[in-house]
Amino acid sequence: MSDWKHFIALFLLGSIALSSIALFVGFADYDYHYTYEREVDHFPPRVYPTDYSALQPESQQVVDEALETGRVTRQNGSAIPSVKKSSLPSEGSTETNFGSRLYVNESNLSEIASEGIKRDGRKYLFTASRSFDWTDPRTFGPMLLGLLCGGGVLATIRSSIKDSMVR
């Protein structure tokens, strides 16, 4: 192959590979997990408890199911109970009841968030997390396209090096 054909192949395959990264970031589907950890006497320091009665009915259903089965997975994370970022205490605050949403790390929502639920005088500890749903074509499609085009880029580079060594 001539140098201009290598350049065109590299440009096209590289562009498609980079575009697939953008597609993956923009369209990847997530599964949301809510896992029952254990019953506790006192909540750990960085856990912000929520009263069961303060939760929406959908969130109460998720808590009930997690208590029964140990783990709940949902396609839509809106029913997963956690504490709102805006409700987190400021430094030195002693408040502990913060509503119904907790995201521990603002920059990474896949970070596991510990959550406490108070129900009927008992205290339960849960974790909320999210993961990629690899069964959804919007998740594995761009990833597969990127890997194939990345392989094409490597094959083109190898071919170009091989052609330059032969001459």
Folded structure, characterized:
- The chain is rod-shaped, with a radius of gyration of 24 Å.
- It starts with a helix and ends with a helix.
- The chain has a five-stranded mixed β-sheet with strand order 2-4-5-1-3, covered by helices on one side.
- It has two domains: 3-27 and 136-166; 30-132, no CATH class.
- It is α+β, with helices and mostly antiparallel strands and 167 residues long.
- Helices cover 41% and strands 22% of the residues.
Summarize this structure as a short list of keywords or feature phrases.
single chain, 167 residues, alpha+beta, five-stranded mixed sheet, 5 strands, rod-shaped, transmembrane helix, membrane, transmembrane
- Poorly predicted runs are 83-113
Count of DSSP-assigned helices? 3
Distance N to C terminus: 12 Å
What is the helix content? 40-55%
Element-by-element helix/strand order = HEEHEEEH
Question: Given the C-alpha coordinates, what overall shape results?
Answer: rod-shaped
Helix vs. strand class: alpha+beta
Percent in strands: 15-25%
Query: What's the number of structural domains?
Result: 2
The biggest beta sheet is recorded as: 5 strands, mixed
Gyration radius (Cα, Å) is 24 Å
Mean pLDDT: 73
The strand line-up of the biggest sheet is 2-4-5-1-3
User: Can you count the beta strands?
Assistant: 5
Transmembrane segments: 7-28, 139-157
Keywords: Membrane, Transmembrane, Transmembrane helix
